[in-house]
Amino acid sequence: MGPLLRRYRFLVPYLLLAPGLVWLTIYYVYPAFQMFIASFWSGTLSQGFTFSFANWTNYTKALDNYSEQFFRSIVYAGLATVLTFAISFPLAYTIAFRGGRFKNLLLFLVIAPFFTSFLLRVISWRTILGDDGLLLGPLKDLGAVPEDFRVLATPVAVVTGIAYNFLPFMTLPIYVSLEKIDRRLLEAGQDLYATPLMTFRKVTFPLALPGIFAGTLLTFIPAMGDYVNAELLGQTPSTRMIGNVIQSRFLTNNDYPTAAALSFILMAGILVAVAVYARLLGTEELTSGAV
Amino acid sequence: MSEHDSILGRRFTRRTMLQGTALAGVGAFLAACGTTGQSIAPTVGPSAEPTSAPSDAATPAPSDKPTPSAVLNFANWPLYIDQDESNPPKSPTLDQFTAKYGTKVNYVEAINDNDSFFGTIQPPLQAGQDTGWDLVVLTDWMASRLIRLRWVDTIDTANTPNFVANLRDVYKGVEWDPDTNLRAPWQSGMTGLGFDEATTGALTSLNALWTDDARWKGRVWFLSEMRDTVGLTLLKLGFSSEDFTREQADAAFAEIQKAVDAGIVRSFLGNDFKEGLVKGDLVLGTAWSGDIIQAALEKDTLRFVIPDEGGQLWTDNMQIPKGAQSKYTAELMIDWVYDPAIAAQMAAWIQYVSPVQGAKEALAANADPEVAALAQNPLMFPDDATLAKVHIFKGLDEAEEAYMNDEFSKVTGN
């Protein structure tokens, strides 16, 4: 065994990579390729589809028809990311610096709701946010909001729903980067007569950036393609996101070319957005800092 | 979204009514379960067996006929057949079929919505191969699509005397199945007006859906199933939903858009409307009869009416996919469920509209008064006056279907 292993040592990294590569090839590369082909199809389900690069107009048509939903997805995902960050950062900060012996418990509590199925949580939000539900019912009884006021079927419901569902994806990376900060650096800041605010700005926040970068990506990217929240909490034509359009193009209208083109536009859009974002924050430093 | 409801597929929750109810209240769920269970038990044994016996004699299989196969592969929707409540997944109807013909029925609740099931049978059908199913149950429009694609086998009606004799007239000679031999209705439901009478008062006209009334503005839903909502809108406009022109369809889409723009309509929903209705977020909309029956168990002010302008009748149909291994046995099964006694046994459990003539009488004759009372339920057994008011949506060709779906998508925001 020994000599054999030594002789083929150069193979080891590939063997270790193999499961992941095979997995990605079968379940990502191949379907993505298929989808790419489909996005250049024309035709109908019963007459069959034909491939031609002349069908690049699928892309322009898709953009033309669904720019509204694309724009809405960017806005909703952006707002949700900002909201998630606004909630997560203080939360992660408190756990990391003030958690003490409750740290693990607090972290567990952040994740605890996510032991429940994603779908059930969204559906229970529907109960909580109902027109006469737990939240609005009492407010209406008190006359604090008008009788016909509602949260469901509004952008607020969709954005807060997304923010809620991605909270741990923001909180945990930020927590990890805050937790790693060498406390002596903070003390050094104080020794150099920095105010707590200044220390936070010059030391804590920059050191937390890798976590913030990871957290915002983990939130923004899936939020862009999310359709469950818009489906269950939005439920109104004016809150449909691009994910809903892709879903209905694929499954209801059997319009595979448009659905495939939309998926690729979404992917490309996210790639560009992430590239710009990484550029702005300076990824090199961030990823090296995160290791 | 339309016709298909991704997460809480209309079918899924509609048929898994018990699960749906469980979400809203475990108590109601248990109550519903208990009632059904107790009332069914007597139906199954005594009344079904003897009544089905004569029809055995009536349909002797001539010797040149093929023999029943060992297995019948039957795909259906969840909770869509009677179950033995002491031994739940088992179905008396299927067990009795096995006892009679010796065929083991591989009954699989494989269909959660038309579109995704279609996705599973489309590749083999397109390739001219066997789908693995001998019998599938699909909604009218999907059934007509399969017929259009020539992907179904013709039912040899010589093997299905019960079907020929007992199919109610309203189902016969539809435009996409003129000889009534390309599909056999399984169960039906009606689409009409559903509302919470405590909030809206009594309603009979579809005009309410376009009326800016403080009692229901912003609490109205339309069904996400294109044919249901467009069908009712066509009727509201005074057109026919069984046959209409492109211009009339356009007028209907514009009319739907009007209600959306006015802020009257809040959502386009599949069967989740039931949940909103029970919670009070929704008070009025276009609804399926069966869902209102179920939701009314939790909120007794809920009403379902066939509007003055008319309603829609939709049907799920048994079809034999092209290339099925056991076509003859599938025909025997079609004939079997058209035996009025069997149909009554199923209806008592399913509580939708049975397409079988005589099922009502068979149910009314049941020894258990609670079961017998179901025969008087107008939503399970609509009278002729009601049936005269309901329409079957036009069978669309592929281009029409694509156009209608696209236009409907625009209105619903997809």
Ordered list of secondary-structure elements with their pairings:
The complex is a heterodimer of chains A (291) and B (414).
Chain A: H1 2-7, H2 12-38, E1 41-44, E2 48-51, H3 57-98, H4 103-111, H5 118-129, H6 136-141, H7 155-165, H8 167-179, H9 183-191, H10 196-225, H11 228-234, H12 242-251, H13 256-281, H14 283-290
Antiparallel strand pairs in A: 1-2
Helix pairs in contact in A: 3-7, 3-8, 3-10, 3-13, 5-11, 7-11, 8-10, 9-10, 10-13, 10-14, 12-13
Chain B: H1 10-15, H2 17-24, H3 26-58, E1 71-75, H4 92-101, E2 104-108, H5 114-126, E3 135-139, H6 140-148, E4 152-153, H7 161-166, E5 184-196, H8 197-200, E6 220-223, H9 226-236, H10 246-261, E7 265-269, H11 273-279, E8 284-288, H12 289-295, E9 302-305, E10 311-321, H13 327-337, H14 340-350, H15 359-364, H16 369-373, H17 384-389, E11 390-391, H18 398-412
Parallel strand pairs in B: 1-2, 1-3, 6-7, 6-8, 10-11
Antiparallel strand pairs in B: 3-10, 4-10, 5-8, 5-9, 5-10
Task: Spell out the key features of this protein.
heterodimer; A: 291 residues; mainly alpha; MetI-like fold; two-stranded antiparallel sheet; 14 helices; globular; B: 414 residues; alpha/beta; D-Maltodextrin-Binding Protein, domain 2; 2 domains; eleven-stranded mixed sheet; 44% helix
